[in-house]
Design a protein that fits this description.
- There is one protein chain.
- 21% of the residues lie in helices and 29% in strands.
- The longest helix has 22 residues.
- Strands 35, 36, 37, 38, 39, 40, 41, 42 and 43 form a nine-stranded antiparallel β-sheet that branches. A six-stranded parallel β-sheet has the order 1-2-3-6-7-8.
- It is of the alpha+beta class.
- Helix 5 runs parallel beside helix 6.
- It is built from 31 helices and 73 strands.
Length: 1396
């Protein structure tokens, strides 16, 4: 039957061919019985699109993926009786956000499986071409070993976060390694081989299957992926393998399977694994199991298709991972992988076939010797009407189940095959407190009184709510964003709702609960446990008008192995979903969500195969009587297993919160684990102690041991990993609940701990710390970033001491020093920062616009501290402290003392001349004019996607402090400009001029700041500046440029070509250079930019970086030379009038057309003779390639295809005659149109050198007037209110306001300009405030009394002219409105008005 699980089609993959149905038919023709479809997952960044995806957007990719899933489901329905089709996807790992995107994708489409592949290294595709592969090698400085290390590190991230069912082409990084050139194989290095081994071990541990991918032969490799050295290790370690062809067309199905068969035989590999949809069970949809095909190399598939000439028909299928088999006595459970229920979707592995209910009851009847007539869950067996529980053996059953529960500790059950013990519900409330002797005398209920799920669920769903929340700031382990989850009412009178900690969230959130009747109420997060995964919301019961929910009773003691349960909640975004399951374990370890994430510990978890997925976090786990026996918290991404938090600690917390008391929590900063006695003996446990513990706790099968103790914590030096806990305060302790009872009761006091270490007993006194004291409840916003103190959660993940400044979000200021999320700041400006207060003092003591050292380390490398230079820039954002109100859950802000303003008096800094040796001539004549420019953007406006730009500049007027650079160095006007002069003086500059068409900008610095430092104006060749001479093809030039490490580059070369500069419209829209000729050089040097000059150092051209995008909307930069004559008018105007010139445009994009083509279009012979008589260059004319806007007079007169012949009675031969026009509001043109010459008088449009002068922030959206690049991409502007960016966790982000939209109406009031928008918002707010005052603050039906949290209706239009109505809930507390206005007198030329 062999199979393939890695396929693509041209219908949904641009680098493949054919339709998806063709692929299915090809598999059918080869008699495959299982086919896995695995199109590429869509990418979410435009720069990550592949070249063949030209013209597509990321939205197109997501739409195509949805179409793929729909088509795949159709094909499964059509061909399902002939071949089993699994619907999966092949992953990517490009950015830190990719894992979350993959989890959301799996959740949205309920994919059967993932092929876990890594195609990118640090965001660059490595398998697309040899050229890109070599560029990655260059990025690593030619260190191929470093590249391999990075690949395997990224692969581990994918394995840990996604845990794909199939590991795709494990060693793809070898694809273009030059083995044929004798270059050493990095895989031969012990370090890299250990990384690969690490990944193999991890994948095996969670149960992955490795594919043997035959496409490697198409790439010229010796073996299939993985190469034989890696495959051998996988097999030696017991890894499971399957086969795939990685086909990209129907013709590729089974590609190289002949070589693959030989490879399998050569490697001694006879058996293969494969995936299939599980058989049996309640719901087989999206349930996947792994199966073993014995003797796979002898299967008739190989001979039937001509791939081999061996005897077929001997292959035997065997179920794997716990499928029911009577002779399967050596089952081994594999470790489950874990994920949070509100972020990941569940892909079940295998599911045991279940017996028919009648058979189950009959079996149960025989086991318990039950006579005829006994009622089981409403079904009658036999004739007798009534017996006692003693006759039915129910007391024995109760004891046997308790024993089974305990035996599950010593012999962990195989959860996928363990059958339900009985269909009779467990322990009704009538049984609570009833001992076995009393139970024996109780009668069994009549059929009419039997418990039923229907009334239970009907009653319970009224108390279960869907929660939608916005995490408004990154904080601690959490990141900003939106999510949905579940909660349930545990106290209807007090309005308490229980959910998970990762739902209630330690970060600031805004949340609403939606009841089953669609009433919505505001939620206040009133408690979140520092360690365990539960928290509490409170809502105002007066705002719930149309229903009265009941409290769901918490009954932790009722949880039993074999209990039938229902998990009710918002599963995978559904309003209400009811999932069935059976409790299989009560003692599994807490799930592990990954390093640096929130993780629960020091508790058991319950486990059942209910298959919960994203959105079900916080759902109650109900018994048939409607009592909650556990809290749904997480689940396995590899199996149907779900993990539930026991309610023991929750009951205590709910009671204290209900009474308004503080929930005291204690800790000694130590993690414990429960080990069985056989493991404890290996740790040295004395048999005498074991005997006593067994006698004291006969039901227990193990004890607690120390797993780790944090450095500098209360237990550091007193407890060690491996210590076995014997007693606490003189009392023996064997479980987490008893241990935490002692912790919580001993806060601020010492406790006496007795442990067994090795072969000796030890006793110690340890002080119990307040757990809340090491759980952050404050943060500081600085420069758009967030910092808080290192929490216990983060410290535990990385084994570091609690305390220090943790960077939750870097923002503008910290990002300037590359202090990213996951860093711990140790000092700023030489001041130590052990806590938030010292951090605030250190920042307040700095001076605005200064540059100071910051010392920090990354959490994954705490032993490698770094020192970087940070730009103190707090004028763009608020600098404030946020502290959580323990009663309301609201974070209150306190403004902090900002850094001192820049010094008012200018102090000159002196430096010696920045000279080059004569050997670098003529660079030594240019270098005194060179400066380095560092540009940092605080907000992503004007189409920006990056925030940091770096490049060289050249002084053109040292008296005024003017510097010219390219627009890839200074792309927009909003930002901080730092100019390094003479290699050692760093000055704060400002953006003075952005040329609207040509690729240059001018920045300014105060020349008084450098005093007598010897700098010079760059010497421009007068003939080239005037335009009398131009660099032409073949001319000799010297390139004087700045390399990536800011060292000089001097090279003599020649001009290879001169042609029009071609740039593409960008997404999002941004400036692009056009209507100008550019130069290319032979042997272009690798650099950031520079100038072209002659042997005397006279500059004849600019050598700049031109930014654009390719056909896949990926950002690209090309080095291009420009005539210095493009500076002429600007420099002349500044020199003579101290102002920048007026620049006008015809609003068209121009391109060249050959004379022969113009003749074909009707250009007369007389005109051609006239042109050729005056020509001294190539025979090319200019024509209108396209219109740059549609709403100007020029756009109404000119047409696409017009050939421009004359301007103001002069022949037009060069683009600089017509590309831009200086000082003329009208020009006379003669154009060739439809074979005739037409004379036009065309009004021009004045271009503003600084387009954006006003930015408004509202509800997390940055709004501005549409700039020129936006107008180029739409037919007509819907309004002048353009959404440039939306911020994560904001109302705009949550409710669908997206970048690239225009706002046209607010509350049905038309708005045309930014001023209209602001005025309308103010008026609406005043109106709603008045309504609130008149109604006593009841809001507008939302259940909120806060004027900062109401809905506003917006009408928006996207670039495709599609109109939508959005409704945004305002939040002026966390997202206050502010304005950013241009102001030449302010720092960086902009002034922030923080509150409208």
């Amino acid at each position: 039957m062999p199979f393939t699980f890695h396929t693509h089609s041209g219908q949904f993959c641009r680098h493949a061919k054919g339709s998806l149905e063709d692929v299915v038919k090809a598999a059918l023709s080869q008699k495959m019985l299982v086919l896995g479809l695995s199109e590429h997952v869509p990418r979410s960044r435009a720069e990550d699109l592949y070249p063949e995806e030209a013209g597509m957007t990321t939205s197109d990719l997501h739409q195509a993926f949805g179409d793929y899933v729909s088509e795949a489901r159709r094909l499964r329905e059509k061909y399902g009786d002939q071949i089993e089709i699994l619907i999966g996807a092949e992953t990517e790992l490009i950015t830190d956000a990719t894992p979350a995107e993959l989890k959301a994708l799996r959740e949205q489409y309920k994919l059967d499986y993932f092929v876990g592949s890594v195609h990118h290294i640090d965001g660059m595709a490595m398998d697309f071409s040899q050229e890109l592969y070599d560029k990655i090698v260059e990025r690593f400085g030619g260190d191929r070993a470093a590249m391999f290390r990075r690949y395997f590190d990224q692969q581990l991230v994918l394995l840990q976060t996604i845990q794909p069912e199939i590991v795709g082409h494990f060693d793809l990084v070898r694809i273009f390694h030059p083995y044929s050139q004798g270059v050493a194989d990095p895989m031969a290095q012990a370090e890299i081989r250990s990384l690969a081994s690490r990944n193999i071990d991890y994948a095996i541990a969670y149960g992955a299957i490795f594919e043997i991918n035959s496409r490697a032969w198409k790439k010229g490799l010796r073996d299939a992926y993985p190469q034989r050295d890696v495959l051998r290790e996988i097999l030696q370690k017991g890894g499971r393998v399957t086969i795939s062809d990685d086909s990209h067309s129907a013709q590729d199905v089974g590609m190289y399977y002949d070589r693959l068969h030989a490879y399998l035989v050569e490697m001694g590999l006879r058996d293969l694994h494969y995936l299939r949809r599980a058989k049996g069970g309640r719901d087989t949809n999206n349930r996947i199991e792994a199966c073993l095909l014995k003797n796979a190399v002898e299967h008739r598939f190989w001979t039937a298709n001509g791939y081999a000439s061996v005897g077929g028909g001997n292959a035997v299928e065997q179920p794997q991972d716990g499928q029911s088999r009577s002779d399967d006595s050596e089952r081994q459970g594999r470790r489950s992988s874990h994920r949070r229920s509100n972020t990941d979707s569940s892909v079940p592995a295998t599911s045991a076939p279940k017996k028919d209910k009648t058979d189950v009851r009959a079996d149960t009847s025989r086991r318990l010797s039950i006579g005829e007539g006994v009622v089981y869950s409403g079904a009658q067996i036999g004739k007798r009407r009534s017996i006692t529980y003693a006759e039915a053996g129910m007391a024995a059953r109760r004891r046997s189940l308790a024993y089974s529960d305990l035996m599950a500790v010593f012999y962990p059950p195989n959860t996928m095959s363990q059958p339900t013990v009985t269909d009779l519900p467990f322990e009704s409330r009538a049984w609570e407190g009833v001992d076995d002797r009393q139970l024996e005398q109780m009668p069994i209920v009549e059929p009419g009184a039997a418990a039923s799920w229907e009334p239970t669920l009907e009653r319970a769903i009224k108390s279960i709510v869907s929660i939608k929340a916005q995490c408004v700031r990154s904080f601690d382990t959490e990141t900003s964003g939106t999510y949905t989850a579940t909660g349930f009412v545990v106290d209807a009178e007090a309005g308490l709702i229980l959910s998970n900690r990762h739902v209630v969230n330690p970060a600031p959130i805004v949340a609403q609960a939606i009841f089953v009747n669609y009433e919505e109420v505001e939620l206040q997060p009133v408690y979140r446990d520092p360690v365990h995964d539960f928290g509490l919301f409170r809502y105002d019961t007066k705002h719930l008008r149309f229903m009265q929910p009941e409290s769901i009773h918490l009954a932790p003691h009722k949880a039993k192995v074999g209990m039938e349960i229902r998990v009710v909640g918002n599963d995978a975004g559904e309003k209400l979903s009811i999932l069935a399951g059976t409790l299989a374990r009560l003692d599994r370890p807490a799930p592990d969500y990954g390093i640096g994430q929130y993780n629960d510990f020091n508790t058991f978890y319950l486990q059942a195969a209910s298959g919960t997925s994203g959105g079900s976090s916080g759902s109650p786990v109900l018994d048939i009587y409607g009592d909650a026996v556990a809290l749904n918290a997480g689940g396995s991404s590899k199996a149907a297993s779900s993990f539930y938090l026991p309610l023991n600690r929750i009951v205590r917390a709910v009671d204290l919160v209900r009474r308004g008391e503080h929930v005291q929590r204690g800790t000694i900063q130590t993690e414990f684990e429960y080990l069985s006695y056989d493991e404890l003996r290996r740790l040295g446990l004395d048999m005498t102690i074991e005997t006593k513990m067994r006698e004291t706790f006969p039901a227990s099968q193990g004890m607690l041991a120390v797993r780790s103790a944090l450095p500098k914590g209360p237990a550091d030096g007193s407890l060690r990993a491996g210590d076995i806990v014997v007693a606490v305060n003189g009392q023996p302790v064997i479980d987490f609940v008893a241990l935490e009872d002692v912790f919580d009761a001993s806060v601020g006091r010492d406790m006496h701990v007795s442990v067994w270490r090795g072969a000796k007993a030890y006793s110690t006194r340890i002080g119990v710390q307040d757990l809340h004291a090491i759980t952050p409840s404050r943060y500081i916003e600085i420069g758009g970033g967030v910092v808080n103190e290192v929490s216990y959660q983060v410290a535990r993940s990385y084994g570091i001491p609690v305390g220090g400044i943790y960077v939750a979000s870097s923002g503008h200021t910290l990002g300037s020093a590359s202090v990213w999320r996951g860093s711990v700041i140790q000092s700023i400006g030489g001041e130590s920062t052990p806590d938030l207060d010292s951090f605030a003092r250190a920042v307040s003591g700095l001076r605005e616009c200064s540059r100071v050292p910051v010392k920090f380390f990354a959490l994954d490398q705490p032993y490698k501290p770094k020192v970087m230079i940070m730009s103190v820039s707090t004028h763009w954002h608020a600098f404030r402290l946020a502290e959580r109100d323990a009663v309301t859950g609201l974070w209150r802000y306190t403004e902090l003392s900002e850094p001192m303003p820049p010094e008012s008096t200018v102090k000159a800094q002196l430096a010696s001349a920045w000279q080059l040796p004569a050997s670098l001539a003529p660079g030594d004549k240019v270098w005194p004019s060179v400066v380095l420019i560092d540009f940092h953007i605080p907000y992503l406006v004007d189409g920006m996607k990056s925030t940091h730009f770096l490049g060289p500049g050249f002084i053109i007027d040292k008296r005024r402090g003017l510097v010219v650079c390219d627009r890839d160095t200074v792309p927009i006007s909003v930002g901080d400009v730092y100019i390094t002069v003479a290699g050692s003086i760093v000055l704060l500059g400002s953006v003075d001029f952005l040329h609207p068409v040509y690729n240059f900008a001018i920045v300014r610095y105060d020349p008084r700041q450098i005093g007598a430092t010897p700098v010079e104006d760059v010497r421009l060749h007068p003939d080239y500046l005037s335009g009398e001479r131009k660099l032409e093809q073949g001319d000799s030039v010297h390139v004087v440029a700045v390399s990536a490490d800011q060292s000089p580059v001097v090279r003599r070369t020649r001009v290879s070509s001169r042609a029009m500069v071609s740039t593409k419209e960008c997404l999002p829209p941004r400036f692009r250079c056009l209507n100008v000729e550019g130069l290319k050089l032979n042997d272009q040097p690798s650099c950031q930019g520079g100038v072209l000059c002659d042997a005397d150092g006279l500059v004849t051209g600019l050598w700049t970086s031109v930014s654009s995008q390719d056909a896949n909307n990926k950002d690209v930069t090309t080095m291009t030379g420009f005539d210095i004559s493009i500076l002429r008018e600007t420099m002349r105007s500044v020199s003579t009038a101290s102002r920048y010139p007026d620049i006008y445009s015809l609003d068209v994009e121009l391109w060249t057309i050959r004379m022969a083509a113009a003749r074909t279009l009707g250009l007369s012979t007389a005109r051609i003779d006239q042109i050729e008589a005056q020509s001294n260059s190539t025979n090319r004319l200019l024509y209108v390639l396209g219109m740059l806007t549609t709403n100007t007079p020029a756009a109404a007169l000119l047409r696409t295809g017009d050939i421009i012949l004359e301007k103001n009675d002069c022949l037009v031969r060069d683009v600089d005659q017509i590309g831009i026009i200086h000082g003329a509001e009208n020009v006379d043109l003669v154009v060739l149109r439809d074979g005739k010459e037409v004379r036009l008088s065309v009004p021009t449009t004045r271009l503003d050198p600084v387009e954006t002068k006003h930015v408004v922030h509202w509800s997390g959206a940055l709004v501005q007037e549409p700039y020129r690049a936006v107008q180029e991409q739409v037919r007509a502007l819907p309004s002048s209110i353009y959404v440039s960016c939306t911020l994560y966790g904001s109302p705009a982000n949550c409710y669908g306001l997206r970048p690239g939209m225009w706002i046209t109406e607010v509350e049905s009031i038309p708005v045309k300009s930014i001023a209209d928008f602001i005025h309308t918002l103010k008026r609406i707010r005043q109106t709603k405030d008045a309504e609130d005052a008149s109604t006593g603050g009841s809001g507008s039906g939302s259940g909120s009394s806060s004027s900062t949290s109401r809905y506003v209706r917006l009408t928006v239009v996207n670039r495709n002219e599609i109109t939508r109505m959005l409704s945004l809930r305002l939040d002026s507390h966390y997202w206050p409105p502010w304005e950013l206005v241009i102001d030449p007198t302010a720092i960086a030329g902009w002034r922030s008005i923080r509150y409208l």
